[in-house]
Amino acid sequence: MRVLGVRCGHPRLRFLVTSVNRRGTHAAATSAHHGDPLPLIQIPKHSSVYAFGAANERSSPLFQTKDVEWTVSGAAGESWGIVGRGKRNVFQTLLGHTRIHPVPQKGLFPIMRDTDPFPNIKFVPFRHSNAVGPGDSGGFYDYTARYGALWEGDDKTLGESVRESAHTSPLSLQQRDAIMESLGLRELLDVPRIALSNGQMRRARIMKALFKNPRLLMLDEPLTGLDVISRRRFVELLEMLKKVPSAPRIITSYRLQEIVEFGDGAARDVAPEFLTHILFHEGDKFWAGTRREFFNDFVPQHLELGQRRGDTIDAATNNAGAGRTVVHLKDVNVKYGTRKVLDGINWEIRQGDRWHLQGGNGSGKTTLLSLLTGDHPQSYVQKHLLLPSPESTSAPVNQSTVTQPAWKLEHRKRTPTPYLQYLVGVLSPELFDAFPRRYPGMSVWDAVQTGFRGSFIALNKPVGDVHVDPWEADAACLKEWRIRRCWEVLEGLGPASWNGSSSSSSKPQGQEETVTRESPLKISTVTREFAAMSFTSLNPGEQRMVLLMRALVGRPLLLILDEVWSGMEEKMIEAARFHLDGLNGLGADQAVILVTHWDSEVPWTPEHGLKMFRLEEGSGRIIS
Ligand SMILES: Nc1ncnc2c1ncn2[C@@H]1O[C@H](COP(=O)(O)OP(=O)(O)OP(=O)(O)O)[C@@H](O)[C@H]1O
């Protein structure tokens, strides 16, 4: 069947196309399609874009367009994707949160110059928060609340929230249904919103924004966190909507690796089908053009192919199963009311293991991990959930055990939670959202050292000093080790690594040296400066790197990396992958569980000892 000269795939989407067309709510967008010269967005050449508050034109701009004019026609069929580390600057500009100099004569949104554009624009940021998150208040919120939500019965369900959005939606019931269906949310209507998994929540937020049918809809990294099937359905939906003049014009952003695959010295176009144009912004680079120009001209000329992706991991590192059992689960079950999320899970994790935990959105990965971290209330009622616990109740660390505290396996009920936090390092979307940003002046250094206890409380220690409790054995030795660890992760994962001036490569300028009892450790000036920066002043990708350092700094026995690469740019991911198996990265005494929906993001292969555990319809199995 052809609608608008367009081949339509799925029947429910066919309906969406025809019915959205009938309403024709966006007359202006349609007129652009019929030759109206006014574009939807226009940032002229030689514009400088400043953060609000930048005193004058002598302040440094966020970015400059130089000889590039960025024009989005707003015509049906055109679809822009934004990539590069500066993509959020571009969104901020479109949201009116920056100042453009000179002020564009026709306005930033020429097509909407006779109306206030801002009610016609919706933005779905990358960051999600199931509760009121630090993005709003900067304070801590307890993300573990979601695991008990149904007991309390006090949170709105997705269905209730959908009914509320219906009141303000210009779309018909059938149109809203078609969107809900194509985002795979219908079967979740009875789930409390707080309990939605990450991927489910991202889809729910996109659905809500689509219900408003704005003229311009901006989606920041919409593919991140979606499983393979949801990604396919989402791409199918956007492919359809882009052809409908009365539907929102949708601008999406991506991490570079989501649209370009680097390998064998060449770059391959793996961008979603609906993209027709690409804007790249990073540092002083600002480039806009068609998809074909991007892949044929821009990528080969401007992105260093040889240095991306690939052979960073030493293939000799295969310690899988080499050590003692760290976690043991037998017949583990979790259910909410009648909804069984985990059903008879058996899993053993040993030191040296590198696991890729797989499963679609909502398959129970986060739930399973929350049992291992002891965050889930149902962790206490499992018959056989053995977790690491202190060998004795005395201080956990002394001179000989500074890098490997004494531990044994215990039932969850006999595992002291603070000790568990000490032995299990975590970075997950929930933790990223919950990490408090409000402590006055919390520095990067301070944020990293909260990892020694798995706590969220800044200790306000100056750079170069760390906290050690007086009761901890051999405090002096421990202090020295902790300071060294902080510098190791900062140097290995800080800007020195992702900006290409790591101390392990050629000597960057202005390098200093610090000497510890064991061996000298080089710390570059850029690392020292970074350590002193305020955590909140960093962009989300940098914050994520710092929280990865926090997870690694204590050399935890078990490391849980849940969707850690989301929000990070490719160079950061490369640096992290390199660090994880480098000299100061992970050891054979540590076990790792990694969660990602992108196989290419797993730093290990089966030759490196990678194992896969897959959750499907409540059951878990090892796959080979
Ligand atoms: N308190 C709750 N009440 C009801 N259902 C819940 C509750 N908590 C979680 N769920 C449901 O349990 C399922 C598992 O969620 P979980 O977050 O573990 O999925 P996931 O595999 O991590 O998904 P994603 O890949 O999207 O992060 C989801 O369908 C979720 O809606």
UniProtKB/TrEMBL annotation:
Domain of life the protein comes from: Eukaryota
SUPFAM superfamilies, per database record: P-loop containing nucleoside triphosphate hydrolases (SSF52540)
Ranges for region Disordered: 496-519
A single MF term (Gene Ontology): ATP hydrolysis activity
Stored InterPro entries: ABC_transporter-like_ATP-bd, P-loop_NTPase
Gene3D superfamilies hit by this protein: P-loop containing nucleotide triphosphate hydrolases
PROSITE patterns given in the database record: ABC_TRANSPORTER_2 (PS50893)
All copies of domain ABC transporter, residue ranges: 38-308, 327-622
Keyword annotations: Hydrolase, Transport
A Pfam family recorded for this sequence: ABC_tran
Family under the similarity heading: Belongs to the ABC transporter superfamily.
Protein name: P-loop containing nucleoside triphosphate hydrolase protein
Organism lineage: Eukaryota, Fungi, Dikarya, Basidiomycota, Agaricomycotina
